[in-house]
Amino acid sequence: MAATIDDEVHALAQRLWDFHTAPAAHSPPTPGEHDIILALGSHDLRVAEHAAHLWDAGAAPLIVLSGQRGRRTAGAHGHDRWPRPEAEEFAQTARATAGIPSTAMLLETHATNTAENFTHSRALTAAHGIAVTRAIVTAKPYMGQRALATATAHWPEARWTFHCFAGGYTDYPNADTPTEELVHFLVGDTQRLDVYARRRWSSPVDIPDDVWRAYELLVARGFTNHLVDNDTTSHPRPTGRSVP
């Protein structure tokens, strides 16, 4: 079934957006309160711009930019393959945004998924002798729930805060990510919270019944491009999952 956008889809997608962005901090971080800013690589360079603004405001002395290429930046679904790893593209954007010196950035160029963003960055900071007890993670706004769930599973000794660039569901789409693709991403990230927790790739997150119902209705409407294999029969449903 071809996915089409209408008022029902907008309402359902708005519910997913509100859920996924709920963990985002709305007040500016206190200068000097965090050890690092971890920017999760993706196709959205606004994340790198926001990380640069956080650094420029004194949120942390160091930015860790993490990412090789994901499905989108590797050329999936007809998109152009990025010539360089996401971390390198992010670094270029961060420099252009706030003039960040190379000494204030660490580039992690091997991660191909969110779990690896954290495990590889954790190893990289440790190799540089950097103790991380409080940290900011920034990513696409709708990755708030998944970013923190992954952080607590793979870098649990640090206390994490999620920050993202401003704007809501209707503000996020642009020429690079139209509304239809955003809805596919929202559906996929909702599924990942459930599936990845069962696979023990991330910590369990309580998904309210109305959020899960919105997800199911959007899947039925054809928004399935960002779904992953759901063969998790050998894994128990996480206790944090609210079953409809």
UniProtKB/TrEMBL annotation:
It holds the Pfam family DUF218. One of its GO terms (cellular component) is plasma membrane. Residues 35-154 form the DUF218 domain. This is YdcF family protein. It comes from Halostreptopolyspora alba.
